[in-house]
Design a protein that fits this description.
The complex is a heterodimer of chains A (754) and B (348).
Chain A: E1 2-5, E2 8-11, H1 19-34, E3 37-41, H2 48-62, E4 69-73, H3 76-97, E5 105-107, H4 111-114, H5 126-137, H6 139-146, E6 164-168, H7 170-173, H8 175-181, E7 190-193, H9 199-207, E8 209-212, H10 213-250, H11 253-260, H12 272-275, H13 286-304, E9 310-312, H14 314-325, H15 329-333, H16 335-346, H17 355-369, E10 374-379, E11 392-397, H18 400-410, E12 413-418, H19 426-431, E13 435-440, E14 450-457, H20 474-490, E15 495-499, H21 502-515, H22 517-524, E16 526-529, H23 534-549, E17 554-559, E18 577-581, H24 591-604, H25 608-625, E19 635-640, H26 653-658, E20 666-667, H27 668-682, H28 688-691, H29 699-725, H30 728-753
Parallel strand pairs in A: 3-12, 3-13, 4-6, 4-7, 5-6, 7-12, 14-19, 14-20, 15-17, 15-18, 16-17, 18-19
Antiparallel strand pairs in A: 1-2, 8-11, 9-10, 10-11
Helix pairs in contact in A: 1-2, 2-3, 9-18, 10-13, 10-16, 10-17, 16-17, 20-21, 20-22, 20-27
Chain B: H1 3-10, E1 15-16, E2 25-26, H2 39-51, H3 71-90, H4 94-107, H5 109-168, H6 174-218, H7 274-281, H8 283-287, H9 292-304, H10 311-321, H11 324-347
Antiparallel strand pairs in B: 1-2
Classes of the chains: A alpha/beta (754), B mainly alpha (348).
């Protein structure tokens, strides 16, 4: 269907549109016009991706600027989904318009999937493809071509303008990759982060580095390698080294100029002020630099030989480093850049071997660049009980804003969207930006197609909770078991159960085994369990799907932060009920988490408990959202913990709106009765026609809505004008009364919350 | 060498090195634990220690960046130092390098000392600041915990209070009591919040003051003004010439401005003017101490005011400042001054 938002003609590839999709598009357009960042929460399964794509493509084609779209998603399967949606959209557009537009979209993945080279693409292993590709496409190969030598060039090098680029977050956020991939994107690109509820963690991971003894060993081996290579080169081609040296004396001017012209996106590993300076003299010569690296690696090795956990800030680390090895801050900052330059000069091909060394160099640069927002944690043992030391140096980033700052600085419109982003104001706070628009959409439904419930007590009226004190209480475990058993009895097809952690899941399953609960469940459903091993899990998932399809029914036990909870859909009969056992809090004893909490409190005024609860609830909401993937789908959502009652307000709007007051404090038997009732209603035939006008709009209905909206707006304008004319005293009085009403509402809400 | 071997061989004073072909004499107290795994790195660090003048005052390449003319010169120096170290490590030209260094050290003793003092000062102030920050963080953490506890306690107390009153009161006013209790709770929390804000602001202000103080303390007290060896042997190039501080001039309260100086005119005692003459002779005017010269000087000053200004040149400058309003006023004033000057000139 084709309709207009303001003056923009939008082609939507389906004959019907959901009201929330329309609202979403309107808000998107507003943001793009205003040129700012926005946070949008849209219920899962309401066609977020297609509305986003169809609006932005329409926007690109209609306005003369042709702003490029960069669409970032989390997993490969989501990227593929987006690509197929885009393909369908473009097909529809060409049908409607009668001609094919000059339009190019690119989905980036590994070389293994993309390579078109006749012989390279036949290789099976990803690393081999990478290595061969590099030997064919490295920068100096291109230079040779320019010099007229006869070498092949990759087709991708001659790629013209792309309208849409689709890739994973890391290509934009991880500075190592972003430096290569996303550097030359122009300023007016529209950047979309889809499924962005975890974006702060992605940011943090992209700047955190873990160094183990093994990687240090590898690094020192590659340093020795480098030394040898330099020796060789000195004897054969000393001129090249001399050239590099001369360039370094002059400084990194070129890059600075390029950045001045704002051609490149900034890189947190390569801060601006670094570009203005020349490389310090003591690492200018290649052999000095290698000696420098060796010294640094030896120092790290020495630090690894500790027997107790140490956490320290970058400045104190640097001070100690200087005392022992005379490595100053300055050359350390240039480490990563210097290594890249050296590798380029030596024309090294097998970069894989130098991975660890690169990691160490990146670490060196980061530790010398940022005083705040990072922490070094040295853990000699893997776990509390381990006796064999396996030291790990965690260099953790605490501030999500550092990695994403260049993105916000560079691009005028960044859109953060997902099914679960509540509370919305948390994200601008944590990522350090201001949003011009924050919006959460509710779900319009013709019938109540999902049933969220909070179960706080077992059938024996004893409270159930996964809080640490009582989580292994036999009574609590039995109540959880009974809850699952009852739901297995009444729900058709698949049930998904989420536990807060693998550890807890294992202990609870073994206790259920002892109580004979598993045997009883066995009568109704097949039981499948997710494990940390991804192959085993995917096998379990496949079996689960088969069992759901052939009518046997199955229950999948998995973990709220595991692979299943993110990105795997349980639509229709694959998931008729989801049970969240316990609030999925993070493991609070981890030092990294503690440090991050403290950082958030001191810098962003986010209290520990607020953050923990926010984090737990966004994972819980993700789990719940797995089961409902569209408007014709239905499912039961059970939150089984006493503590969910208070955290209700932190659920996304579309879930908390559907949560009735009477269903927030249920015992198992009441929940089962409600669910039975719900399932019976859902079993009634439901025609697509029933939805029309309520949860789906045809073009005519859409136009009606727009007209009504316009009328409303005009009426409001008139009223405002009339109000202005009235005297101000009366106006003030009404406002006061309204405030009073709000007060009462708030009080009532607080009462409920208590 | 293992510890017991060291004990066995060297316990009775210095002894020759047990390695065949090495004729050095070793002492027990010079043995120490190895810090690094790689022996070559260990050796390198030892040499660095000597070069950077940590042990036995032998060499002293501890120049600092601010002693050099340019960054480039400093970089060259760093590279030179690196070269020296690698020479020493790899045993190239050891004798010559060492003698060079010794000569340099002897010539530049003062600046070496000064730099060393600065270094240690910096290290000390860094340590101080670090411990200060740690203490602050600890305090903040404690405060946050306290705050959380307080809130919790108050909430519990409030709820208890409401429950007590509900139990005591009649069933009719139950809802009003509940509402009231809620209101009290809300009020308390908002009061607490504003209180917190105030505290925070205060803390932030305090912190900034402290930071300033710390920064001031962190700055080196003395700058090594003895930089640059007097009879520089040309060993290190690009050093700044030592500048003798300029002798202080006597204090000038007007900052170079002469109070009685006039640029364009000379003030005379008397100007012929028919209506001013009367005033000069009028006793009633003179009695109060009125001096006609005051009037002359003021009028002439006003008349010549703005003569040195070139409006055509200044207008663009002012436009960039964007003060359209003041511009028009100023131009008018200047124009008036010019006309006044011409009229006075006529009078003269």
């Amino acid at each position: 269907m084709k309709f207009f938002i303001d003056d923009l003609p939008v082609l939507f590839p389906y004959p019907r549109i959901y009201p929330e999709q329309y609202a979403y598009m309107c808000d998107l357009k507003k943001t793009l016009d205003a040129g700012g960042h926005c946070v949008l929460e849209m219920p899962s399964g309401t066609g977020k991706t297609i509305s986003l794509l169809s609006l932005i493509v329409a926007y690109q084609q209609f306005y003369p600027e042709h702003r490029k779209l960069i669409y970032c998603s989390r997993t490969m399967s989501e990227i593929e989904k987006a690509l197929t949606e885009l393909k369908a959209l473009m097909k529809y557009r060409s049908q409607q318009l009668g001609y094919t537009e000059d339009f190019r979209a690119l989905g980036l993945t590994s070389r293994k999937n993309l390579c078109l080279h006749p012989s390279v693409k036949r290789e099976k292993s990803g690393t081999v493809v990478d290595a061969r590709c590099r030997s064919l496409t490295a920068g100096f190969v291109k230079e040779k071509k320019e010099r007229g030598e006869d070498v092949e060039l990759c087709i991708y090098h001659e790629m013209p303008f792309c309208n849409v680029i689709i890739y994973s977050y890391h290509y934009l956020l991880d500075p190592k990759i972003a430096e290569r991939v996303s550097r030359e994107l122009s300023k007016d690109c529209i950047v979309v982060f889809d499924e962005a509820h975890n974006i702060d963690n992605v940011c943090i991971e992209s700047l955190s580095i873990d160094i183990t003894e093994d990687s240090l060993r590898k690094a020192s081996r590659s340093a020795a390698n480098l030394e040898r290579k330099i020796g060789e080169m000195k004897s054969t081609d000393a001129e090249r080294l001399q050239n590099e040296y001369a360039k370094l004396v002059e400084g990194l001017r070129e890059a600075e100029e390029a950045r001045d012209e704002e051609q490149f996106i900034a890189n947190p590993i390569l801060p601006d002020d670094l570009l203005k300076e020349a490389v310090p003299g003591n690492i200018r010569r290649a052999e000095h630099f290698v000696a420098f690296l060796k010294r640094f690696i030896e120092y790290l090795k020495m630090r690894m030989k500790v027997t107790h956990t140490i956490s320290e800030t970058p400045p104190s680390f640097l001070a100690h480093l200087k005392d022992l090895t005379f490595i100053e801050r300055k050359p350390l900052r240039f480490c990563a850049e210097r290594l890249t330059s050296l590798v380029r000069t030596l024309e090294l091909l097998n970069l894989e071997d130098y991975h660890s060394l690169q990691e160490v160099a990146t670490f060196a640069t980061l530790v010398a660049t940022y005083d705040k927002g990072f922490l070094l944690i040295l853990e000699p043992f893997e776990s509390e009980t381990a006796t064999v030391p396996n030291p790990v140096l965690h260099f953790t980033c605490l501030d999500a804003a550092i990695a994403i700052k260049p993105v916000f600085d560079r691009f005028s419109s960044v859109i953060i969207t997902s099914g679960t982003l509540s509370p919305l104001e948390m994200y601008p706070k944590m990522l350090g930006f201001t949003a011009v628009l924050q919006e959460s959409y509710s779900m319009t439904l013709a019938r109540r197609s999902f049933l969220p419930m909070i179960v706080t007590r077992g059938s024996d009226q004893a409270q159930i909770s996964s809080s640490f004190q009582i989580r292994n209480d036999p009574g609590v475990v039995r109540n959880y078991g009974n809850l699952l058993l009852e739901f297995c009895r009444i729900t058709p097809d698949g049930i998904v159960v989420f536990f807060p952690s693998y550890l807890y899941m294992e202990s609870i399953i073994s206790m259920w085994q002892g109580m004979g609960i598993l045997d009883q469940i066995w009568n109704y459903k097949l039981i499948l369990v997710e494990t940390p091993d991804s192959q085993e899990s995917s096998l379990a998932l496949e079996t689960y799907r088969t069992a759901c399809c052939n009518g046997r029914g199955a229950v999948l036990l998995c973990v709220a932060r595991g692979k299943v909870s993110e990105g795997i859909d349980f639509d229709h009969h694959y998931g008729r009920a989801v049970i969240c056992i316990g609030v999925p809090f993070q493991y609070t004893e981890s030092r990294i988490l503690k440090a991050r909490l403290e950082f958030l409190r001191e810098n962003y005024r986010i209290r520990e408990n607020d953050f923990l609860s926010f984090d737990a609830m966004r994972h819980a909401a993700q789990c719940l959202g797995r089961v409902l993937r569209g408007k014709d789908d239905y499912g039961i959502m059970v939150l089984a913990d006493r503590r969910f009652q208070k955290k209700r307000t932190q659920l996304p709007k579309w879930i908390s709106q559907a949560l009735l007051e009477s269903e927030t404090n249920l015992s198992t038997d009441m929940a089962v009765a409600t669910a039975k009732n719900f399932l019976r209603t859902m079993a009634q035939p439901f025609k697509a026609k029933d939805q029309e006008g309520i949860s789906t709009w045809s073009l005519a209905e859409l136009e009606q809505h727009v007209a009504k909206q316009k009328e409303e707006q005009a009426r409001l304008m008139r009223e405002a004008a009339a109000n202005d004319q009235m005297n101000n005293g009366a106006h003030g009085a009404t406002v006061q009364r309204e405030e009073f009403d709000d007060d009462i509402d708030e009080e009532l809400m607080m009462l409920d919350a208590d | 060498m293992c510890e017991s071997c060291v004990d066995r061989i060297f316990s009775s004073g210095p002894a020759p090195c047990p390695v065949a072909g090495c004729h050095k004499t070793l002492r027990k107290n010079r043995f120490r634990k190895q810090t690094f795994e790689d022996i070559s790195v260990e050796r390198e660090v030892d040499i660095r220690k000597r070069v950077m003048q940590i042990v036995d005052w032998s060499f002293s390449l501890n120049r600092r960046e601010d002693e050099f003319d340019s960054k480039r010169a400093y970089d060259d120096f760093l590279e030179q130092r690196e070269e020296i170290i690698s020479n020493l490590v790899n045993g190239i030209d050891v004798a010559k390098t060492e003698s060079d260094l010794k000569r340099y050290a002897a010539a530049n003793m003062d600046s070496i000392r000064a730099n060393q003092v600065r270094e240690s000062q910096e290290a000390a102030s860094f340590l101080e600041q670090q411990s200060f920050e740690q203490e602050q963080a600890r305090l903040r953490r404690q405060a946050a915990r306290q705050e959380y506890e307080n809130e919790r306690r108050e909430m519990l107390a409030g709820r208890e209070d409401v429950l007590g009153r509900l139990a005591a009161g009649s069933p009719g006013d139950a809802s009003s009591i509940a509402r009231e209790g809620q209101k009290v709770l809300l009020k308390k929390s908002s009061a607490r919040r504003s209180e917190e804000d105030r505290m925070r602001q205060k803390q932030a202000a305090l912190r900034s003051v402290e930071a300033k103080r710390a920064a001031a303390a962190g700055q080196p007290v003395t700058t090594a003004d003895t930089a640059g060896g007097e009879e520089d042997t040309g060993f290190i190039k690009g050093l700044k010439k030592a500048k003798a501080p300029e002798p202080e001039k006597p204090y000038d309260p007007f900052g170079g401005l002469e109070p009685g100086k006039r640029d364009y005119y000379v003030l005379q005692d008397r100007y012929p003017s028919s209506w001013l003459d009367r005033i000069r002779d009028d006793v009633r005017m003179q009695a109060g101490g009125y001096d006609l010269r005051e009037y002359y000087s003021r009028t002439l000053l006003e008349a010549f005011a703005g003569l040195g200004c070139f409006i055509d040149e200044e207008i663009p400058k002012r436009d960039t400042a964007g003060l359209a309003l003041s511009k028009s006023v100023a131009t008018e004033g200047a124009a008036a001054a010019v006309t006044a000057a011409s009229s006075v000139g006529n009078a003269v």
